[in-house]
Design brief:
Length: 219
């Protein structure tokens, strides 16, 4: 299977292929197989951990956290330098001072935004019976975009995407949850296929649902 219509074979061992459920079902036939979140990073952003026997939780990878903190740290450094060490900013601000301050604020904001989304909880919790993605989880009977019952999950979906930009092209891969009504919810989206596949197996075994492996797409 080549990269244009599937995942690179060297990244998927026999265990991965044999355990993917390719059976045709009415749900699977109606599930979208295009990327749910076009784009994505070209490196591993998250790692799944077993918090307890009844809970799986995603946490930022080391690389993902460093990436976010680098943006935030550089921006904060520019802001501090221009506000504290450049006395002229307070009494006689120059264009250079103002530019440095604006540059720092943009980088700090971007870093904070990245870290906010990296650390956003993504949790499979059998104790509450819910999957949720967000900081404020409150169990209720109403299904929300990022909060729904585990027993409504029909399958785990893997989708690849070849992304082309000014620097060339790279692969990004989604791990999505397919619900019983055929809709999908994204869990993670990053550039490490092996991790995505390993995560899919962990979630599949935890929930006792199949893995549906879609073809890759180009953007």
């Amino acid at each position: 299977m080549n990269q244009s219509n599937g995942f690179n074979q060297k990244d998927i061992d026999k265990r991965d292929i044999d355990s993917v459920d390719f059976t045709e079902t009415s749900i699977k036939n109606n599930v979208e197989i295009t990327p749910l979140k076009p784009g994505g990073s070209n490196f591993k952003t998250h790692a799944i951990v077993e918090s307890s026997s009844s809970q799986l939780r995603y946490r930022p990878s080391v690389g993902g956290a460093l990436f976010g903190f680098l943006f935030f740290g550089v921006g904060l450094g520019f802001v501090i330098f221009n506000m504290i060490f450049e006395d002229g900013l307070m009494y006689n601000p120059s264009l250079f001072n103002l530019f440095g301050l604006a540059f720092g604020l943009i980088f700090a904001f971007a870093g904070g935004y990245i870290l906010y989304h990296l650390y956003k909880p993504r949790v499979f919790d059998k104790q509450s019976g819910y999957y949720y993605k967000g900081y404020n989880f409150k169990p209720n009977e109403r299904e929300l975009e990022h909060q729904f019952k585990l027993n409504t999950i029909a399958a785990v979906q893997i989708i690849g995407e070849t992304i082309r930009d000014s620097d060339g092209c790279y692969g990004s891969y989604e791990l999505n949850l397919v619900l019983e009504d055929g809709t999908r919810r994204n869990v993670v989206d990053h550039g490490n296929l092996k991790t995505i596949i390993d995560d899919a197996h962990i979630v599949s075994e935890f929930l006792n649902v199949p893995i549906w492996h879609a073809e890759s797409n180009k953007t």
